[in-house]
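Lecture 7 notes: from sequence to structure.

We start with a single chain of 354 residues. Read the sequence below before looking at the structure.
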Amino acid sequence: MQANIVTLPGDGIGVDVVAEGVKVLRAVAAKFGHTFTFENHLIGGCAIDATGDPLPASTLDACRHADAVLLGAVGGPKWDDPTAKVRPEQGLLGLRQGLALYANLRPVQVFLELREASPLRPERLDGVDLVVVRELTGGLYFGPRKEATPDDMTAYDTMLYADYEVERIARKAFELARLRRKKVTSVDKANVLASSRLWRRVVTAVAADYPDVTWESMLVDSAAMHLLRRPADFDVIVTENTFGDILTDEASMLSGSMGMLASASLGAGSNGVYEPIHGSAPDIAGEGIANPLATILSVALLLRYSFGLGQEADAVEKAVADVIAEGYRTRDIYTAGMKRVNTEEMGAVVCQQL
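Now the structure, written as tokens:
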């Protein structure tokens, strides 16, 4: 197949890890006879520096016309003023909204060889294989808000949801569960929040259309506890925007590092944005020690969900698993006796496995 991929390295280690993702995509194209072309565009802090806009119109237009988007990370101390009117994170939120990407899939899988890298006891990690389905264009991040001013030191953010927003993300979760272990956990705060009571009511109605899938509702504080207490019990977790953001960062500790977790942001069409869940880590940017495996696993999601290339996606995931099994480790997942490699070397050994 022929496909055009927009790359948005962004800031910090985003530049380092996206380079390795592109390297793997080129290896996939060579092995399986595809033609992938790449367009590089600005987003985040580097876009602010160059254009004054964290999401230039040219970037959004290129992403809309692409077959898929591979993104690194945005932000850094240079732009780290939460009171600034223009911030790198606005580029990321604008991209999601501009492409109508309402569903964020974040798989969490624990590799047997990396159990010692997790702060949890190894026996609690047996059988962990879950996906968090996070609603991505509603809730606190997009609802009405008011900033505090020197004359009025009050502020608010509104967790706003409409029933159709909840229904479409719930259906995405139940459809995904049908391809997995057929279990959905819907996470909310229905004992306190009106938006969560709507959430629970809509999810309950959607669940009736999937009698083959077992499901449960769970309060977000309980879910946070059980992710550490009994993580293997979860299959598909579906939740709203803010809760999903927090829970997936917590879940990254199951795998041993945020450098291991990929994500796919999807909408109604085949185009999507694929990115590691980690931040820009400016303190290690350019030093060759960032873990590119989350980006490489995001490449596998890109191949599967945007291009429908399941065999190629499986090959990338197997290559990552083989590299880990052979003992290759970047600094974040390194333990004594393993083969320590830098960012580029990790990308290279994955390509060798392919």
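The CA atoms of residues 252 and 258 lie 5 Å apart. Keep this in mind for problem set 3.
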